[in-house]
Amino acid sequence: MARSRKRKKRASVAPIYVFGIVWAVMALTLPIYRLNVILITLAVSAACAAAAIPVMARLNPRRSTVGSSKEDPEPEPAKSYGAEIDAIIAEGHTAQKEMGRLYASIQDESIRKKINRIMEISDKIVQDAIHDPGDVPQITRFLSYYLLTTIKLLNAYDRMSSQGVRGENISGSMERIEEMLDAAISAYEKQLDSLFANQALDIETDIQVLNNMIAREGLGEKDFK
């Protein structure tokens, strides 16, 4: 069976060989029994070994000589929730990326706060598709029209705000877009709340069933008084 893990990178042994060879040559030609000669021999051998490191790295770039012995781990594949939900998540990520770009480009702080709020709510709406696939039709409609139109208007606002001119047409359009963002945020909040209608009904049913069981088993507070 093939090994799943890659081999660790091993350091080159060439500098060790260079150190040994230089030491041997100098030991044969110099009075190695003297302390000062020993120190000089050590220094020269170490310098030659150090100089060999970059040379070997250029000759064999695949071999790591000074780096970490572990290779970078490969990224794990994204979890799939099915084609329909995966498409919603991908579309949501694209929208978040574009709104992030608009947030960085538009300098008006009040507009940036509104963009940030829209990003927060829309991300929660997209994530709801994972927890409640029954909401997919509503979320798809939200993404394909409401969020897409909001991003389109934000792009128009970004272009107009960068013109350096505040004439009647530009100023009027920008003001209407600002008002639209307030209405959009309110609508998005209501959209998110409506996605929990099914869960609220399930919770209410579970509470009623639990209360009935408690009463039937005589475990309620009134039964102990």
Class by SSE composition: mainly alpha
- Strand fraction equals under 5%
CATH-defined fold name of the largest domain: Single alpha-helices involved in coiled-coils or other helix-helix interfaces
Number of helices: 7
C-alpha Rg (nearest Å):
35 Å
| Mean pLDDT over all positions | 80
Domain count: 2
Shape: elongated
Query: Can you name the CATH architecture of the largest domain?
Result: Up-down Bundle
Biggest beta-sheet profile: none
Helix content: over 70%
What is the number of strand segments?
0
Low-pLDDT stretches: 1-9, 63-69
Along the chain, the helix and strand elements come as HHHHHHH
The CATH class assignment of the largest domain is: Mainly Alpha
- Give the distance, in angstroms, between the N- and C-terminal Cα atoms: 70 Å
What keywords describe this structure?
225 residues; mainly alpha; 2 domains; 7 helices
Please characterize this protein's 3D structure:
The longest helix is centred in the last third of the chain and has 27 residues, at about 170-195. Helix content is about 70%, strand content about 0%. It has helices at about 15-30, 35-60, 85-105, 110-130, 135-160, 170-195, 195-215. Helix 5 (about 135-160) runs antiparallel to helix 6.
